[in-house]
Specification:
three-stranded antiparallel beta sheet; 9 helices; 3 strands; about 10% strand
Length: about 170
């Protein structure tokens, strides 16, 4: 990701999600670089997960947007406003699954993006950012869940997809 684009994405996310913790910022960077492959274990599981989430996601809030950019290629489609605007969840599911299969990020890209984010964000100290990424590196750069605080404040319900794949679905 280019520094200017990363700066714009991080600035927008920090403004929108003021309660985010460092692990939520990592999740943002991870999804933008790695896509959704970690979340697509099987088509049946992806279908069940989406179906369950659609039933339990609740009403759309006024401040929710349909699409948030996570990188030049990857977007987050928020389910509540997507469904409220008449979005086709079958098309979204297909894009999510295809992204998981076809979009391959790299840990080198993740490290580069994290270093850029660490240098431009002002929410967390450089030592906190360094300590967090060191722990993630030691664990093999796993995907993480949103923090409990983030989940309580924002009730995230979305799918991460490659924009180009979604548009072709």
């Amino acid at each position: 990701m280019q520094e200017e684009l990363i700066r714009s994405i991080v600035s927008e996310q920090v403004e929108r999600y003021r309660g985010m913790l460092v692990q939520d910022l990592y999740k943002l960077v991870y999804q933008g670089v790695m896509g959704s492959g970690h979340a697509v274990t099987s088509v049946a599981d992806a279908e069940k997960w989406l179906s369950n989430e659609l039933l339990s996601m609740g009403e759309c809030r006024d401040d929710e947007v349909v699409v948030e950019r996570l990188s030049a290629d990857i977007i987050r489609v928020n389910l509540r406003p997507f469904v409220a605007s008449g979005g086709d969840t079958d098309v979204l599911l297909d894009g999510f699954i295809r992204t998981g299969r076809e979009y391959l990020g790299s840990t080198d890209g993740l490290i580069r993006a994290w270093k850029t984010v660490a240098g431009i964000q002002n929410l967390f100290s450089l030592s906190e950012m360094t300590s967090f990424i060191t722990g993630q590196e030691e664990a093999g750069f796993p995907a993480t869940h949103h923090s409990q605080i983030y989940r309580e404040l924002y009730r995230p319900a979305y799918r991460v997809v490659a924009e180009k794949i979604l548009l072709l679905s």
